[in-house]
Amino acid sequence: MNVTERFLKYVGYDTESDPASTTTPSSLKQLTLAKALVEEMKEMGIQDAYVDTYGIVYGTIPATKQGVKTVGFIAHMDTSPDMSGKDIKPRIIDEYDGGVIVLNEEKDIKMGPDEFDSLKDKKGKRLIVTDGTTLLGADDKAGIAEILSMAEIIMQSDCPHGTIKLAFTPDEEVGRGADHFNIEAFGADFAYTVDGGEVDSVDYENFNAASAEVEIQGRSIHPGDAKGKMINALLVGMEFHSLLPVFDNPAYTEGYEGFHHLTDMHGECEHAQLSYIIRNHDEVLFEKQKQQFKDAADYINKKYPEGTITLTIKDSYANMRQIIEKDMSIITLVKEAMKQVGIEPTSHAIRGGTDGARLTYDGLPCPNLGTGGYNYHGKYEFACIDEMEKSVELLVKIVENIAK
Ligand SMILES: [Zn+2]
């Protein structure tokens, strides 16, 4: 099976995860793919392949050379709950002409390079697109297909290599992909998530992230009798928000610019609550943003009775760069392998978090590699076959280079 055949097989499994569920994995249908992957791995000769009680698939390709570092490759099995992942009808475009692609004639669903930058450099390439009614699932079944295609090539070659660890996780899209990952059992010295975007990207920067809950205690009095007594919690909430820098807002930021984002506000005169997320790649600026929240709360508590605002800031995840940059060899390794297979390496600052960031902080350094999949979480999702094939070549080269 080549990487495209593998990919098309996996998208036949509906593995949509469910943020509302409390089970692990969040949707049991993910286990159907997990079991199929274990079968496939065993047939390939990965004898220890298994799925654990949390729905994570693990497997090992034993070393053919001793004294070589153990590398891991990780991809996720679930697809985003933002759009249905059921009855996906992928279509291959053998040579993209660079124009508008009609995904669905009947429903008049099209995509073109004017709307989607990611199509601009794809002229002449082979693409896999949806029929406009579902997502494609290249996020992240392209990653699984690429890792197992690499595994098959390595196992059939006589090229010396160290131990290679493979893992496929459920529930990445609902933020629980790293919750039960057993780093110790996995036993890799370092790993790569293979998940998303241009095949020339090796990404090791993500946001530092925190949440801020603002509880406001007002004082409700009959409005006709309120002079000098009423404290309207809703108005205090608006005042609190007005004390924060106005341009630190997702709608005004890009690249390395951080933001705070008001995700929810509700309340009444007596009591109000505002919820925020705070994001920044830079640790120092991130701390400064948190301090601005504290200063705003202090000001309110001086102006109004003490205890009017209760602010709770919790860190969610951190930028893996702070750890990766202490030893950049796992990035250099990728960049050199890229050049050897004819790719010019790029790195992007991810404006979000990754499972790899969590794993990095838990002790397994884990940057991300691109898959050749684009426009995630919706009907415009597509995969570039040429890039998927390039990714397989790259993964093989990385494995070979580690053993040199
Ligand atoms: Zn993904």
TrEMBL record:
Where in the sequence is the active site? 78, 172 (proton acceptor)
The record's GO molecular-function terms, alphabetically, read: metallopeptidase activity; tripeptide aminopeptidase activity; zinc ion binding
Q: Which GO terms describe its cellular component?
A: cytosol
**Chemical reaction(s) catalysed:** Release of the N-terminal residue from a tripeptide
Could you tell me which residue ranges the Peptidase M20 dimerisation domain spans?
204-305
Question: Hydrolase as a keyword?
Answer: yes
Family matches, as NCBIfam families: peptidase-T (TIGR01882), PRK05469.1 (NF003976), PRK13381.1 (NF009920)
Name of the protein described by the UniProt record: Peptidase T
